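Hi R.,

Quick one: here's the Long-wavelength opsin sequence you asked about.
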Amino acid sequence: PFACELYAMVGSLFGVTSIWTMVFIALDRYNVIVKGLSAKPMTTKLALFQIFCIYLHGLFWTLAPMFGWSRYVPEANMTACGTDYLTLTWHSRSYIVVYASFAYFTPLLVIIYAYYFIVKAVASHEKSMREQA
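And here's the predicted structure, written out as tokens:
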């Protein structure tokens, strides 16, 4: 049913956009903390563009099941709907694999990368401050 599909699509959309918002926050912190004064400053125009891209990216991945690449189905207790991850066809599985790659694993790796260098920069700064004291 359409209401089920809409429910699942909106839930997925907000999940994906939340994750990618955290990615852009991590990248902004990386830009400010690691690059310091040499970093390109965040502007309102750039922030709005990033938000637009986040939602466009989220819409692409969450509308795909509405147009036939996999599908949204009622879940086990029939009180919620989600992506069909039980169907064993390649068509259905390919969506899950690609969706997981671009909606979850890529953001995870970008956040790990950014925070690795943030922690490294903070530790280096802390060490230099201790040496000066």
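The radius of gyration is 20 Å.

Cheers,
M.
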